Protein backbone atom coordinates (compact mmCIF):
# COMPACT_ATOMS: atom_id res chain seq x y z
CA UNK A 1 0.00 0.00 0.00
CA UNK A 2 1.30 3.49 -0.87
CA UNK A 3 2.07 5.73 2.10
CA UNK A 4 0.07 8.92 1.49
CA UNK A 5 1.34 10.85 4.49
CA UNK A 6 3.00 14.19 3.84
CA UNK A 7 6.79 14.18 3.65
CA UNK A 8 8.23 17.18 5.48
CA UNK A 9 11.85 18.34 5.72
CA UNK A 10 12.81 20.46 8.74
CA UNK A 11 16.29 21.97 8.63
CA UNK A 12 17.99 22.25 11.99
CA UNK A 13 15.27 19.95 13.28
CA UNK A 14 17.39 18.16 15.86
CA UNK A 15 16.99 20.55 18.80
CA UNK A 16 15.24 23.67 20.07
CA UNK A 17 12.54 25.21 17.92
CA UNK A 18 13.43 22.91 15.02
CA UNK A 19 12.84 19.77 17.07
CA UNK A 20 9.55 21.24 18.26
CA UNK A 21 8.49 21.83 14.65
CA UNK A 22 9.46 18.26 13.72
CA UNK A 23 7.42 16.90 16.64
CA UNK A 24 4.43 18.96 15.55
CA UNK A 25 4.49 17.44 12.08
CA UNK A 26 4.97 13.95 13.50
CA UNK A 27 1.94 14.46 15.73
CA UNK A 28 -0.01 15.56 12.65
CA UNK A 29 0.86 12.26 10.97
CA UNK A 30 3.59 13.37 8.58
CA UNK A 31 6.78 11.57 7.71
CA UNK A 32 9.53 13.93 8.88
CA UNK A 33 13.15 14.20 7.79
CA UNK A 34 15.40 16.43 9.90
CA UNK A 35 18.87 17.54 8.88
CA UNK A 36 21.80 19.16 10.65
CA UNK A 37 25.55 18.80 10.69
CA UNK A 38 25.42 16.62 13.82
CA UNK A 39 23.00 13.91 14.86
CA UNK A 40 20.69 14.66 17.80
CA UNK A 41 21.59 13.32 21.24
CA UNK A 42 18.32 11.37 21.18
CA UNK A 43 15.77 10.69 18.44
CA UNK A 44 13.19 13.39 17.76
CA UNK A 45 9.90 11.64 18.51
CA UNK A 46 6.20 12.31 18.93
CA UNK A 47 2.96 10.34 18.71
CA UNK A 48 4.82 7.05 18.56
CA UNK A 49 6.85 8.07 15.51
CA UNK A 50 10.41 9.27 15.05
CA UNK A 51 11.90 11.76 12.61
CA UNK A 52 14.51 10.44 10.21
CA UNK A 53 17.88 12.17 10.62
CA UNK A 54 20.22 12.84 7.70
CA UNK A 55 23.48 14.75 8.12
CA UNK A 56 23.83 17.88 5.98
CA UNK A 57 25.84 21.09 5.88
CA UNK A 58 23.25 23.52 4.53
CA UNK A 59 25.98 25.93 3.48
CA UNK A 60 27.10 23.45 0.82
CA UNK A 61 24.75 24.14 -2.10
CA UNK A 62 25.75 21.02 -4.03
CA UNK A 63 25.24 18.75 -1.02
CA UNK A 64 21.83 20.33 -0.44
CA UNK A 65 20.75 19.50 -3.99
CA UNK A 66 21.83 15.89 -3.54
CA UNK A 67 20.03 15.71 -0.19
CA UNK A 68 16.65 16.73 -1.63
CA UNK A 69 16.98 14.45 -4.63
CA UNK A 70 17.71 11.52 -2.31
CA UNK A 71 14.85 12.31 0.08
CA UNK A 72 12.42 12.55 -2.84
CA UNK A 73 13.72 9.29 -4.32
CA UNK A 74 13.52 7.43 -1.00
CA UNK A 75 10.11 8.72 0.08
CA UNK A 76 8.45 9.21 -3.30
CA UNK A 77 8.08 12.97 -2.91
CA UNK A 78 8.59 16.00 -0.66
CA UNK A 79 5.53 18.02 0.33
CA UNK A 80 6.92 20.73 2.59
CA UNK A 81 10.17 22.35 3.65
CA UNK A 82 10.59 24.32 6.86
CA UNK A 83 13.75 26.42 6.76
CA UNK A 84 14.44 26.58 10.49
CA UNK A 85 18.24 26.26 10.75
CA UNK A 86 19.93 29.47 11.86
CA UNK A 87 21.09 31.46 14.82
CA UNK A 88 23.91 33.69 15.97
CA UNK A 89 26.20 34.34 18.95
CA UNK A 90 25.99 37.77 20.60
CA UNK A 91 28.48 40.26 19.22
CA UNK A 92 28.41 44.01 18.57
CA UNK A 93 29.21 44.83 14.97
CA UNK A 94 32.35 46.83 15.69
CA UNK A 95 33.68 44.09 17.98
CA UNK A 96 33.16 41.19 15.57
CA UNK A 97 35.37 40.16 12.68
CA UNK A 98 33.81 40.60 9.21
CA UNK A 99 34.41 36.92 8.42
CA UNK A 100 32.31 35.91 11.44
CA UNK A 101 29.50 38.21 10.38
CA UNK A 102 29.65 36.74 6.89
CA UNK A 103 29.17 33.26 8.34
CA UNK A 104 26.05 34.46 10.17
CA UNK A 105 24.60 35.76 6.90
CA UNK A 106 25.58 32.54 5.15
CA UNK A 107 23.75 30.38 7.68
CA UNK A 108 20.65 32.54 8.04
CA UNK A 109 20.12 33.72 4.46
CA UNK A 110 22.17 31.78 1.92
CA UNK A 111 21.54 28.34 3.46
CA UNK A 112 17.72 28.77 3.33
CA UNK A 113 18.11 30.00 -0.25
CA UNK A 114 20.05 26.86 -1.20
CA UNK A 115 17.51 24.61 0.50
CA UNK A 116 14.56 26.38 -1.10
CA UNK A 117 16.05 26.17 -4.59
CA UNK A 118 16.77 22.46 -4.17
CA UNK A 119 13.32 21.79 -2.75
CA UNK A 120 11.68 23.77 -5.57
CA UNK A 121 13.21 21.44 -8.16
CA UNK A 122 11.34 18.59 -6.46
CA UNK A 123 8.11 20.40 -5.58
CA UNK A 124 7.45 21.92 -9.00
CA UNK A 125 7.70 18.50 -10.66
CA UNK A 126 4.88 17.14 -8.51
CA UNK A 127 1.23 17.49 -9.47
CA UNK A 128 0.44 18.52 -5.90
CA UNK A 129 3.24 21.10 -5.68
CA UNK A 130 4.13 21.91 -2.09
CA UNK A 131 5.02 24.61 0.41
CA UNK A 132 8.06 26.27 1.93
CA UNK A 133 8.03 28.02 5.29
CA UNK A 134 10.84 30.29 6.43
CA UNK A 135 11.45 30.76 10.14
CA UNK A 136 12.14 34.45 10.39
CA UNK A 137 12.66 36.66 13.43
CA UNK A 138 11.49 39.93 14.92
CA UNK A 139 15.21 40.78 14.78
CA UNK A 140 14.63 41.36 11.07
CA UNK A 141 11.84 43.88 11.72
CA UNK A 142 13.60 46.22 14.17
CA UNK A 143 17.13 47.22 15.22
CA UNK A 144 19.02 44.17 16.43
CA UNK A 145 21.93 45.29 18.64
CA UNK A 146 24.33 42.44 19.35
CA UNK A 147 23.03 40.48 16.37
CA UNK A 148 23.14 42.94 13.50
CA UNK A 149 24.11 40.54 10.74
CA UNK A 150 21.48 38.07 11.96
CA UNK A 151 18.77 40.73 11.88
CA UNK A 152 19.81 41.82 8.41
CA UNK A 153 19.78 38.23 7.19
CA UNK A 154 16.32 37.59 8.64
CA UNK A 155 15.00 40.77 7.00
CA UNK A 156 16.41 39.53 3.71
CA UNK A 157 14.89 36.10 4.27
CA UNK A 158 11.39 37.53 4.57
CA UNK A 159 11.86 39.54 1.38
CA UNK A 160 13.23 36.45 -0.36
CA UNK A 161 10.13 34.48 0.66
CA UNK A 162 7.82 37.12 -0.81
CA UNK A 163 9.73 37.03 -4.09
CA UNK A 164 9.66 33.23 -4.21
CA UNK A 165 5.92 33.31 -3.56
CA UNK A 166 5.47 35.38 -6.73
CA UNK A 167 7.98 33.58 -8.93
CA UNK A 168 7.00 30.03 -7.92
CA UNK A 169 3.23 30.35 -7.84
CA UNK A 170 0.95 28.54 -8.28
CA UNK A 171 2.91 25.29 -7.75
CA UNK A 172 4.67 26.28 -4.54
CA UNK A 173 3.45 28.46 -1.69
CA UNK A 174 6.10 30.31 0.35
CA UNK A 175 5.49 32.01 3.71
CA UNK A 176 7.42 33.25 6.73
CA UNK A 177 6.83 32.74 10.43
CA UNK A 178 8.28 35.84 12.09
CA UNK A 179 9.24 34.49 15.50
CA UNK A 180 9.63 36.54 18.64
CA UNK A 181 11.25 35.49 21.90
CA UNK A 182 11.20 31.71 22.36
CA UNK A 183 11.97 29.40 25.24
CA UNK A 184 14.27 26.51 24.35
CA UNK A 185 17.14 24.71 26.06
CA UNK A 186 19.41 27.62 25.03
CA UNK A 187 17.20 30.33 26.59
CA UNK A 188 19.51 30.73 29.64
CA UNK A 189 22.36 31.71 27.28
CA UNK A 190 20.30 34.66 26.09
CA UNK A 191 18.21 35.59 29.11
CA UNK A 192 20.09 34.31 32.16
CA UNK A 193 18.72 32.19 34.99
CA UNK A 194 15.06 31.35 35.60
CA UNK A 195 14.38 34.77 37.10
CA UNK A 196 15.96 36.39 34.05
CA UNK A 197 13.79 34.31 31.75
CA UNK A 198 10.73 35.27 33.82
CA UNK A 199 11.60 38.99 33.61
CA UNK A 200 11.97 38.76 29.84
CA UNK A 201 8.68 36.87 29.59
CA UNK A 202 6.90 39.68 31.44
CA UNK A 203 7.82 42.07 28.62
CA UNK A 204 5.69 40.03 26.20
CA UNK A 205 2.02 41.12 26.14
CA UNK A 206 0.80 37.50 26.39
CA UNK A 207 3.04 37.03 29.42
CA UNK A 208 5.31 34.21 28.26
CA UNK A 209 7.94 33.27 25.71
CA UNK A 210 6.93 31.21 22.70
CA UNK A 211 7.15 27.47 23.15
CA UNK A 212 8.48 25.38 20.24
CA UNK A 213 5.01 23.79 20.03
CA UNK A 214 3.56 27.24 19.25
CA UNK A 215 5.90 27.51 16.27
CA UNK A 216 5.06 23.96 15.24
CA UNK A 217 1.34 24.70 15.17
CA UNK A 218 1.92 27.67 12.87
CA UNK A 219 4.13 25.65 10.53
CA UNK A 220 1.72 22.71 10.37
CA UNK A 221 -1.08 25.11 9.50
CA UNK A 222 0.89 26.87 6.75
CA UNK A 223 1.83 23.53 5.19
CA UNK A 224 -1.76 22.28 5.31
CA UNK A 225 -4.59 22.56 2.81
CA UNK A 226 -6.29 24.98 5.18
CA UNK A 227 -3.64 27.51 4.16
CA UNK A 228 -4.09 26.78 0.46
CA UNK A 229 -4.65 30.46 -0.41
CA UNK A 230 -1.90 31.81 1.83
CA UNK A 231 1.37 32.64 0.10
CA UNK A 232 3.82 35.50 0.43
CA UNK A 233 2.55 36.11 3.95
CA UNK A 234 4.43 36.85 7.16
CA UNK A 235 2.78 35.37 10.26
CA UNK A 236 4.02 37.28 13.31
CA UNK A 237 4.33 34.82 16.18
CA UNK A 238 5.50 37.08 19.00
CA UNK A 239 2.79 37.07 21.66
CA UNK A 240 1.71 40.60 20.86
CA UNK A 241 5.13 42.10 20.22
CA UNK A 242 7.41 44.07 22.48
CA UNK A 243 6.31 46.78 24.87
CA UNK A 244 7.76 50.13 23.69
CA UNK A 245 10.58 51.24 25.96
CA UNK A 246 9.28 54.82 26.15
CA UNK A 247 6.22 53.65 28.06
CA UNK A 248 8.42 52.53 30.96
CA UNK A 249 10.57 55.66 30.72
CA UNK A 250 7.65 58.08 30.71
CA UNK A 251 6.36 59.55 33.98
CA UNK A 252 2.71 58.99 32.99
CA UNK A 253 1.03 55.76 34.11
CA UNK A 254 0.02 53.42 31.24
Automatic annotation (TrEMBL):
Stated family: Belongs to the short-chain dehydrogenases/reductases (SDR) family.
Natural source organism: Streptomyces anatolicus
Domain Ketoreductase: 6-175
Keywords from the named record: Oxidoreductase
Record SMART domains: PKS_KR
Keyword Coiled coil: no
Record protein name field: SDR family oxidoreductase
Pfam families per the UniProt record, alphabetical: adh_short_C2
Keyword match Aminoacyl-tRNA synthetase: no
Gene3D superfamilies assigned: NAD(P)-binding Rossmann-like Domain (3.40.50.720)
Signal peptide: none
SUPFAM superfamilies in alphabetical order: NAD(P)-binding Rossmann-fold domains
Amino acid sequence: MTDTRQVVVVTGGTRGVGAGIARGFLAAGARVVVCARRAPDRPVEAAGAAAEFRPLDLRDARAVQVFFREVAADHGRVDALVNNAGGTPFGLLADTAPARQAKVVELNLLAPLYASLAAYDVLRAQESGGSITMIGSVSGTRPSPGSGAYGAAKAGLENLARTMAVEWAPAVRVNTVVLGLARTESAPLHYGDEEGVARVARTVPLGRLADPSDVADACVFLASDRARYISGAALHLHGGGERPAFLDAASVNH
